[in-house]
Design brief:
Layout: E1 5-10, E2 13-20, H1 23-28, E3 40-54, E4 63-68, E5 74-80, E6 88-101, H2 104-107
Parallel strand pairs: 2-3
Antiparallel strand pairs: 1-2, 3-6, 4-5, 4-6
Length: about 120
């Protein structure tokens, strides 16, 4: 993956994320990836705030997804199963979506309402 990377912080927990900004990068996402380092993920930056929906077509990794406010506050976290075509919706308009290894948020006590810090967030 030849994408820019940034570090995000959730309290004392750091995660290195690939940043997908173009339509093509967001469409590819983590498709075909067989592994992801423990503290690694992908941040999707959409062009505008809209209700976003993600699915796992051609993605063999179990992932957790977080839908984020402009300031990095987590609105919703859900688990996604490999190759599942059933979408998971943000329910509210968002621009930022973070995918990590399944269970990453839960094992660190990170829940909706937690604010992530990083250079991409406003505020």
């Amino acid at each position: 993956m030849n994408l820019p990377r940034v570090e995000l912080q959730a309290g004392e927990h750091a995660i290195q994320v690939y940043v997908a900004r173009s339509d093509e990068e967001r469409a590819m996402g983590l498709m075909y990836r067989r592994d992801l380092a423990e503290d690694e993920g992908m941040l999707f930056m959409c062009d505008s705030r809209e209700v976003q929906s993600f699915w796992m077509k051609d993605t063999p990794l179990p992932l957790s997804i977080a839908f984020l406010e402009e300031d990095g506050t987590i609105l919703k976290i859900a688990d996604l199963e490999p190759h599942c075509l059933e979408g998971e919706s943000s329910e509210h308009p968002v621009r930022f979506i973070l995918e990590v290894n399944q269970g990453w948020f839960e094992s660190r006590g990170i829940a909706p309402g937690t604010r992530l810090a990083g250079p991409v967030f406003i505020g």
